[in-house]
Amino acid sequence: MELINTCLKLAKFSDPLKVGNIILFHKHGKSKTEASSYRPISLLPTIGKVLEKLLTQRLNFHLEKNNRLSNLQYGFREGRSTEMATMKLFDTIHKGKASGDHVLVLSIDIKGAFDNIQHSAISSYLDNSKYPANIVNIFKNLLQNRKVILNTCEGPAIRDQKQGCPQGSCSGPALWNLVANEILQENWPINTNIQAFADDFVLVSHAPTRVQLESQIKESIAKFSTWTSKNQLQISAEKTNYLLISKLVRGPTIRWQFERNRRAHAIKYLGIYIDEKMNWNTHL
């Protein structure tokens, strides 16, 4: 407790508590010869995790009490769940269908969101959170001088961690929600809605014509691209697919970063397959 109280008093997070031992977990179905096929999990010192947990609880309490987070974020928040997120998505789709419009659902994939989030972006959003200065400063200090250790056949390899939130950390999800909050509060085109579960974003737009639908989606992509560029995040265009719930034979042409997005017959959202006919046959 003395160490924790001293850290809080000085607004400093002791450097030895920031060192993470990396354990690699292979992603099922991925090639074992590619680095991207492994998920790095950080094993952090227990005392550091206790302090980080206390700070994160304070941050979350402040954000929720003062309504600093968008209601469109369902991930890593008390009282919210994947069920609520999927029900919200289904409701949005059905409202578009009920209007007689063509409905487009765009599933957005961010490349390694937690691994690539910039510390400078987190610091900027912390400054705007109207959180007590001493807690903001200790969170900023937490991001500085981080190191990771990976055991190899030639011995431990030690590297500086200059970006990203360690997967396995207590504060990572809360800090991600701070950064993601800006895009969720954006003003979107008419009949266009966005929602997120952590870094899983989905856009739903509906319009009476293909041309109008394409225009709305292009404007939405431009807004999202501005946010990702600002925060030095990248979209995985090959994994960003769209679902068209409509009788249109030819759907709108959608491109992201000059790559054409694929029209899918079904997309997977939070473990549930949503198909273009909304009949759930994909699950049978």
TrEMBL record:
Superkingdom of this protein's organism: Eukaryota
InterPro entries: DNA/RNA_pol_sf, RT_dom
The gene coding this protein: R1A1-elementORF2_111
Domain named Reverse transcriptase: residues: 6-274
GO annotation, biological process: DNA biosynthetic process
PROSITE patterns: RT_POL
One Pfam family matching this protein: RVT_1
Organism: Araneus ventricosus
Name under which the protein is recorded: Reverse transcriptase domain-containing protein
